[in-house]
Amino acid sequence: MYIRSKLFVPGSRPELFEKAAASAADAVSFDLEDAVAPERKDAARAAVAEFLCGRSGGFRKIVIVRVNSLSSPWFERDVEAVIGAGLDMINLPKVESADDVHAAVAVIARAEEACGSGRKTPILANIETPKGLRRAAEIATADLRVAGLQIGFADLFLPLNINRQEMSALQFVRVAVRLAAGEAGIAAYDAAFPDIKNVEFCRAEAEAARRLGYAGKSCIHPSQIAIANEVFAPGAAEVAHAEKVLAAASEAAQRGVQAFVVDGQLIDAPMIDHAHAIAAAAGRVREMNVR
């Protein structure tokens, strides 16, 4: 899945569902966890399930549901309610070990079998505790259903009294999570930025994450979507260079050459692979813009 922007919408606010679906975000994440008070969990779950069941075939946005944590009393009911038609991915919060992933997969698999969905629902695992960060690679490689890692800075930093805008802390976590995701060959996604009015810092965060190989960023307000979509899409110069590298690679292959020079830079296999990835990402963006 190609997700530059993921817009959170509280499960307790069904009046916002259609607006979120009509936004420019690549994915909509219906939140049953932090954005929903305990006394409203049941109503929110029912509202999200109803929306998913009514999702038409023309709804092209990626649909994610952030369920409550595995240790909560709501987890199994959340999974049972949302698994099936209309759901693309389960967002699992506060994952701390491979055992957590295995336990969640068991519940998800039972729900899939019960509803006859016939598919294995991917998991987006949140890294938002010290233990989860320490075991990020274990979590990423625990099961093939784990399709991505998502940072949760608020849950990780606030209990430790770490400033949310401390760049050294942000980058330390990002590098650790990105390398863990890289070990599993999956994507890593940057956390949401809570200060809606601070557009410049939101963009700076997104750009810092992009430089570390992140695929996208969570958004808590529609005003952040355009920033994420722009930052996490290949730029025109980047695409042009990739196309130039691929053209040169094709010519070099015909001559039996594996390393060559483009614009004064030595190009070999890893750079060719990267150029293929940039070209593929650009193609996906073009497809999404046509929809």
What sequence of helices (H) and strands (E) makes up the elements?
EHEHEHEHEHHEHHEHEHHEEH
**Tally of separate helices:** 12
- The class by helix and strand makeup works out as alpha/beta
CATH homologous superfamily heading of the largest domain: Phosphoenolpyruvate-binding domains
pLDDT under 50 segments (min length 5)? none
Tally of individual domains: 2
Would you report the number of β strands?
A: 10
- The CATH topology of the largest domain turns out to be TIM Barrel
Mean pLDDT, to the nearest integer, reads 92
Instruction: Name the shape in a single word.
Output: globular
CATH class of the largest domain equals: Alpha Beta
Strand order of the largest sheet: 1-2-3-4-5-6-7-8
The amount of beta strand, in percent, is 15-25%
- Summarize the main sheet: 8 strands, parallel, barrel
- Distance from first to last alpha carbon: 16 Å
The level of helicity is: 40-55%
* Rounded Rg: 20 Å
Can you tell me the CATH architecture of the largest domain?
Alpha-Beta Barrel
